[in-house]
């Protein structure tokens, strides 16, 4: 069985978390590190936005700062995510890997099988739903909201008909980076307070729609699930889904140095985070 590296990093700043994902991608493209599954958390709790979002237009940046919440733009698409009571994952693997389909959609599906098995390991009745039809897309989307879990991807992981994970993918230098949020709990009101809406009425309507279409692990689990238990369930899930052996490892000194450089030069700068 093929061996991939498995890393759990300490709670990092928004800039460092995004920089580490990019550093792994870059050094994997150079053949210096193996395919990698990484689990991480955020310090402080952070609002991340998708690469194409307009920060000033869509986000209440003053309130983000006032509440002591971190802020960063991801290199991947999608919408705003509040990273707080969650386990975040990233998968870095070459586009040319024999188990990775050339289609973005199908590669997304293969990687997301790890999530599916992780939820099932927690005893949840999870399934992967194809969003091939407009009808299916409509079930999991809420037009007009900047919140990530309202944005449908190609395949949706659902429990009891509600979305349970939000993921995004980018391809650079011949390498796939997919990362996403596995929510244990979520403060929906806090998330929506950080987003701009044209009226309070629209905000309430979007929040109500969001609650109908998204759910957290501890809302559907019949018992509380800890972060540690989630890590174990999803580590086994990714090993099963990707058909690999995950071997515990660490970031290399070169990865850390590159990440620190990227955090300082890109992910902590207004030019990157507010440029649109």
Automatic annotation (TrEMBL):
<comment type="subunit">
    <text>Monomer.</text>
</comment>
<dbReference type="GO" id="GO:0009249">
    <property type="term" value="P:protein lipoylation"/>
</dbReference>
<comment type="function">
    <text>Catalyzes the transfer of endogenously produced octanoic acid from octanoyl-acyl-carrier-protein onto the lipoyl domain of GcvH, an intermediate carrier during protein lipoylation.</text>
</comment>
<comment type="pathway">
    <text>Protein modification; protein lipoylation via endogenous pathway; protein N(6)-(lipoyl)lysine from octanoyl-[acyl-carrier-protein].</text>
</comment>
<comment type="similarity">
    <text>Belongs to the octanoyltransferase LipM family.</text>
</comment>
<dbReference type="InterPro" id="IPR045864">
    <property type="entry name" value="aa-tRNA-synth_II/BPL/LPL"/>
</dbReference>
<keyword id="KW-0808">Transferase</keyword>
<feature type="active site" description="Acyl-thioester intermediate">
    <location>
        <position position="148"/>
    </location>
</feature>
<dbReference type="GO" id="GO:0009107">
    <property type="term" value="P:lipoate biosynthetic process"/>
</dbReference>
<dbReference type="InterPro" id="IPR004143">
    <property type="entry name" value="BPL_LPL_catalytic"/>
</dbReference>
<keyword id="KW-0436">Ligase</keyword>
<dbReference type="InterPro" id="IPR024898">
    <property type="entry name" value="LipM"/>
</dbReference>
<dbReference type="Pfam" id="PF21948">
    <property type="entry name" value="LplA-B_cat"/>
</dbReference>
<protein>
    <recommendedName>
        <fullName>Octanoyltransferase LipM</fullName>
        <ecNumber>2.3.1.181</ecNumber>
    </recommendedName>
</protein>
<dbReference type="InterPro" id="IPR050664">
    <property type="entry name" value="Octanoyltrans_LipM/LipL"/>
</dbReference>
<dbReference type="GO" id="GO:0016874">
    <property type="term" value="F:ligase activity"/>
</dbReference>
<feature type="domain" description="BPL/LPL catalytic">
    <location>
        <begin position="31"/>
        <end position="246"/>
    </location>
</feature>
<dbReference type="GO" id="GO:0033819">
    <property type="term" value="F:lipoyl(octanoyl) transferase activity"/>
</dbReference>
<feature type="site" description="Lowers pKa of active site Cys">
    <location>
        <position position="163"/>
    </location>
</feature>
<keyword id="KW-0012">Acyltransferase</keyword>
